[in-house]
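This entry is retained here.
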Amino acid sequence: MELGYPVGVRFHPLDHELVAYYLHKRAVMGDQFRPNVVSDCPDFYGEKEPWVIWDMYGGGGGESNKVEALYFFAHRKKLNPTAKRFDRKVGSGTWSGESSKEVYNTSTTTHGKSVVIGISRHFRYEGGCDSHHNGAWLMQEYQMTENDTTVLCTLRKNSRKLPPPTTPTANVIKER
């Protein structure tokens, strides 16, 4: 994903900026709000593996174009119409929950207290067809307090548990 930033400049928004600006604008404007830093990924909770999504949306750039995280608008689906829980399947695995926290708007207060504007949940990829990828992919899901189906997600590689390289060059080196 080429963003056109000068060398050394990174897109690294804070949690409250993702919720208060990007997710809020998406809720108000719908699909007409298309920032070049957040992609639409209709299959984010679908049949594609996280590493496939990563490559499709530009995360697989070379070292000179290193991407730390990809940002997506996605729609969650409930496990069934009456369920309170959401389906977080991805490819052959699932997003397994690690933690969650409230997101506060730092500029708005009510009686001296910050206002909760959303929730941030952290997940890791587990149970997929290739055990090397288990735990190697991390996802954060941001939800506004008043809208629980449209979310903003970040996708990252877990630097502590990177899968082995799958390039032909890496395989040749490994065989020697």
